[in-house]
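User: Fold this; tokens only.

Assistant: Input:
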Amino acid sequence: MFWKIANKIFNGLASLELAVINIIILAIALAAGTIYESKYGAAVASQVVYRSWWMQVLLWLFILNLSASAMSRLPWKRHHIGFLITHLGIIVLLLGSWIQQRHGIDGIVALAPGETSKQVRIEENVLYIFRALPQSNYELVLDKPLHFDLRSKFEKTLELSLESPTTKEALPEAKILRYYPIAERVVRAEDVAVGKGASAIKLRLEGSRANFSDWMFLQELKGTNREIGPARIRFQKNKPTKEEGMDKPTLFIYPKNQKDLGIVVTNKDGRQTDMGTVVLGKLRPLGWMDFGLVVEDYRPSAIPVADYYSVEKAPPGAQPIEALELELGQEKVWLELGASAQVSSGDSLYYIQFTKKRVDLGFDLKLNRFDIGYYPGTNKAKTYTSQVSVLDKTHLISMNEPLHYNGFTFYQASYETDEEGKPIVSVLSVNYDPGRVIKYFGSLMIVFGIISMFYFKPVYSGRSKIFMKKDKGENHA
């Protein structure tokens, strides 16, 4: 009875019908992955399709089907060689892909000239929480990879247990209350006692070429600027001198006292006009084309507080914001991806990081210099190259010349610029694929297997011209 059931299972695994069904499902899944990638991005497609558990099941079922199909031909004949090599090549190729998926690395390294790093940032979110007692160093109490569904906002509370590596004392519980894969940040001013905050104004600029409404918080020493195309809005501590604002049209706002604001405008020829005291809520023409300014609110002492709202897509030209709300002890805090915060609970201080996971390269990579070549007469980059050092050896990485070192491949991916458009950071794409050789070998086996099936099969079956001539000669004799 047992062998009868086992034989049916084996025949089912080795059947052509299973192979056809599996291939059709895989084709549909890959098509769905392409659609997800075009609609939601590569990260969502990878999470939902390419690296999903059901995709792994389909691939392993395909491997079982190929293995059982090969075993069903026992005892093997010479004409089975091509068939066996092809099936084994597919299995080897899939195993190499599985190894790459499990142990491979795809990430980036961003370096400024003269900067050294030995870590690569990969596309996996992680939450770190460090704890410090008075007069002691920080200790890691949470290292949690976060795998949220990037297609929708987080709808349930995720409880996290903190554990001290040095003591067995109970630590406060941490909870993720909300998570937004794409969030809109809205900053507001919250009043605090004088001396604990900064002066803040809420502006609304109206015009046919630009509109914005936002808070500006005064930086005491250097002031706060907002660039509006060829003009500037500047919030500073004192009334401007005659020399200020000469480089471009500038609107100066400054506190006169705890209740009033003053406003001074510099036009394009450098002439200043004192426009007196600001009247809150009143639209004031600026003389810059058709722009008008409204100072909606003024807070003598405030701190910025950010609120986050889930949105379907980021505003045009803006980078998507990924954010979560964390509760630790009695305090709640919002964290954007790449940001950190400090929270006090009891006699401990907790340092929280919401960031991308970093993997150690095992060696230092230093960027010596970064060069950009432009198309003649334009600011459009034509080529860009990075000169890097690894163990005191210099290498040049360009768009078509990657660096191969210690199993890692470094590609010149992009760069970052400052406010004036000058390149300040070189971005290198990093790939580590331990299954690459296995995949190449599997692909080679498939090629030889197909050649064997389509070229040598007539020989084995006796239908080749050589055997036909031989048989003809024997019959004639």
